[in-house]
Specification:
With 223 residues, this protein is an alpha/beta fold. The protein has one domain (2-216): Metallo-dependent phosphatases (Purple Acid Phosphatase, chain A, domain 2). 26% of the residues lie in helices and 23% in strands. A six-stranded mixed beta sheet has the order 3-2-1-9-10-11. Strands 4-5-6-8-7 form a five-stranded mixed beta sheet. A hairpin with a 2-residue loop joins strand 10 and strand 11. Helix 3 (72-78) packs across helix 4 (94-102). It is globular, with a radius of gyration of 16 Å.
């Protein structure tokens, strides 16, 4: 099984389309999937259009092949704290977007990998599914790195920019800690890019997908 994933589009439709162009030709394959890790809205000017594009992909390929996960910005909108476009007010037709957000899962597992927006309660170990609060799935902070005790799985998440996690303001690629975590929020508002991670579940290997090709993701080295 091949799983492509990306995160934190934040209303940037062009950058989302650029990332999708690397994967959509493969989505008709029965063994290929796309998982989106949340924060589709706010910050950029086209929040509704990003959601419309995701719904279009789900209609075309099926929601089992294109899965969208709940992010903290969608959760904020569901709770009525913000509108779809980060304003205080909802607009005509926005209820359909909020209804769609309400149906989003907080995590999904495939093979040896947990896909979620922000992270899991790692102290819960093998009981993470019942031990992780809703808030942790969508809003965990700071990012956790290193081996996860008593859990032989990897976590793929967005939510916190990889520039922040790596400590390198110029780094916006996929951050792998060399142990149990892959973080893929490339801070699109600064970098103009949405990183694409591809997971090969049969081999338990993780690759960066870009216009330059497919490369296995190595542990981040600040040197």
């Amino acid at each position: 099984m091949r799983i492509y994933c990306m995160s934190d589009m934040h209303g940037h439709l062009k950058e989302f389309e650029d990332a999708l162009s690397l994967v959509t030709d493969s989505l008709s394959d029965s063994d290929t999937y796309l998982i989106l890790l949340g924060d589709y809205i706010h910050m950029g000017p086209q929040s509704r259009e990003v959601i419309d594009r995701i719904i279009e992909l789900q209609d075309k390929y099926g929601s089992d092949h294109v899965t969208a996960i709940l992010g903290n910005h969608e959760e904020s909108c569901i709770m009525g704290l913000t509108g779809v476009d980060d304003s205080d007010d909802l607009k005509a037709g926005d209820e359909k977007y909020i209804s769609w957000m309400r149906g989003l899962p907080r995590y999904i597992t495939r093979g040896n990998t947990i896909f979620t927006h922000a992270g899991i309660d790692e102290e819960a170990g093998d009981w993470w599914q019942v031990g992780t609060s809703d808030h942790i799935f969508t809003s965990k902070y700071p990012a956790q790195t290193g081996e996860i005790p008593d859990l032989d799985m990897k976590v793929v998440a967005g939510h916190i920019g990889t520039a922040s996690i790596s400590g390198d303001p110029s780094f916006h690629g996929i951050f792998y800690d060399g142990a149990s975590h892959y973080y893929i929020d490339g801070t699109v508002t600064e970098s103009g890019q949405i990183p694409v991670l591809m997971v090969d579940t049969s081999e338990d290997r993780y690759y960066s997908v870009s216009s330059d090709g497919i490369k296995e993701v190595k542990a981040y080295d600040k040197h």
